[in-house]
Specification:
The chain is an alpha+beta fold and about 400 residues long. The protein is built from 13 helices and 21 strands.
Length: about 400
């Protein structure tokens, strides 16, 4: 079984991409999705967040929600808003955010490779979120939310991908957040064969974002398995060279100082960090540095080098902060469940950290240096799991530009 294969993509009809493209289903609340989809009957939010078309009190995991998704998908097909390619294709997907640009490949990725850990994971999944995606796939008989994958940049594969985005794109949409999304269909059988072989030669792919979607696809494949290879034996993914991908900082804010006065906090910090008062906002320049905003003042914290271990998880900045500050000093040991801590994606900037502390909502904020793709791959290669809220990928993929129908 190939690591990846082309497929007959379900895409917006010509001129419809701007009507259809929507943010990923898991970055908007239901209330936000209702507002985004207002006056936009063909927005993919009607498929990815179908509860917006039902009464406000509807449980988003109720059976009628998944049924509504299927009805809405059929309506878009019947109206010709979505069309399916006649022959299997790969699709180039370019994301442009300001000066940053990355171009990857939309593929059907092997569930068997995922199950065998050749498509490597770095996060735990929650059964309830997996269940949600399984029901969505079964209701639609399609995978509509792509999994974000990375491959270790390889000169030969990189060069092949440059041949996939020539001519006029099938879709070219600039979203409300200013991110440009472009899609090219690649139909040349010879190039398709070369790309398939090139990816088959790679030792592994890495899940960057989409652990619940890939786990759900594996469950659906297992339920439908038997006889000849099926389209459900593959899942929708977009693969980028890891050197092109961008992880932003994923910052922390905490409601209180665990009963400590500022002077006592400073004394406790000195056991693991050097602490310097800063004249302005601290955006850490390297791993091992942290910004701390407390009582209207920024400080730069630098972990003592002898405290940085070799273990690929324990040496991550998110682990160092937890192991030497959040846990032992502030008493926060469960990042998943402790209500005293919240997380702020770097896309919102350090001003958001200042705002939340200055407002009195939070007592202290910590600015992080971003986790790198090399760190992520090292953790996955070791068969370990990243701490919660370790990575914030930008720009994000859109929903609706290419979907994978399960025949």
């Amino acid at each position: 079984m190939s690591l990846i294969k082309p497929f007959r993509g379900l895409r917006p009809a010509e001129g419809r991409a701007a009507d259809v493209a929507a943010p990923p289903y898991d970055v908007l609340s239901t209330a936000e999705a209702r507002i985004r989809a207002e006056g936009k009957p063909w927005s993919f939010l009607h498929i990815s967040k179908p509860e917006i078309d039902l009464p406000p009190e509807t449980d988003p995991y109720a059976p009628e929600v998944y049924a509504k998704a299927a009805t809405n998908l059929k309506s878009m097909l019947d109206a010709g808003v979505l069309v399916r390619d006649e022959a299997p294709c790969y699709y180039a997907y370019r994301l442009t955010m300001g000066d940053h640009e990355q171009t990857g490949l939309v593929v059907a990725a092997s569930v068997s490779a995922y199950d065998a850990n050749r498509i490597k994971k770095h996060e735990f999944t929650r059964p309830d979120k997996e269940d949600d995606r399984v029901r969505q796939i079964d209701a639609l008989n399609a995978q509509t939310g792509p999994v974000l994958l990375a491959y270790p940049s390889d000169p030969f594969v990189d060069a092949l991908l440059t041949q996939t985005h020539r001519g006029t794109p099938e879709a070219d949409v600039t979203a409300a957040d200013g991110i440009r999304h472009q899609i090219w269909a690649m139909r040349d059988p010879a190039l398709i064969a070369r790309i398939t072989a090139a990816f088959d030669s790679l030792p592994a792919l890495y899940i960057a974002d989409g652990h619940h979607r890939s786990a759900a696809a594996s469950r659906v494949a297992a339920a439908r398995r038997g006889g000849a290879e099926k389209s459900s034996d593959y899942f929708l993914a977009v693969i980028f060279p890891h050197r092109q991908m961008r992880i932003l900082d994923y910052n922390r804010v905490v409601t209180d100082l665990n009963g400590l006065e500022k002077s006592a906090l400073a004394a406790r910090l000195a056991t693991a960090f050097t602490v310097e008062t800063a004249s302005g906002a601290v955006h850490p320049a390297r791993s091992g540095e942290f910004g701390m905003y407390l009582a209207g003042q920024w400080h730069k914290l630098t972990i003592r080098p002898e405290l940085i271990p070799a273990d690929p998880v324990a040496r991550l900045d998110v682990s160092l902060l937890s192991d030497h500050l959040l846990g032992p000093i502030l008493g926060i040991t469960d990042l998943r469940r402790d209500k005293r801590i919240d997380f702020v994606g770097g896309i919102r900037g350090l001003d958001e950290l200042e705002r939340r502390v200055d407002s009195g909502e939070m007592a202290v904020a910590f600015a992080m240096h971003p986790t790198t793709l090399d760190d992520l791959m090292a953790v996955a290669d070791a068969g370990e799991v990243m701490p919660p809220k370790s990575t914030w990928f930008e720009p994000k993929l859109a929903d609706g530009l290419v979907s994978h129908v399960l025949d």
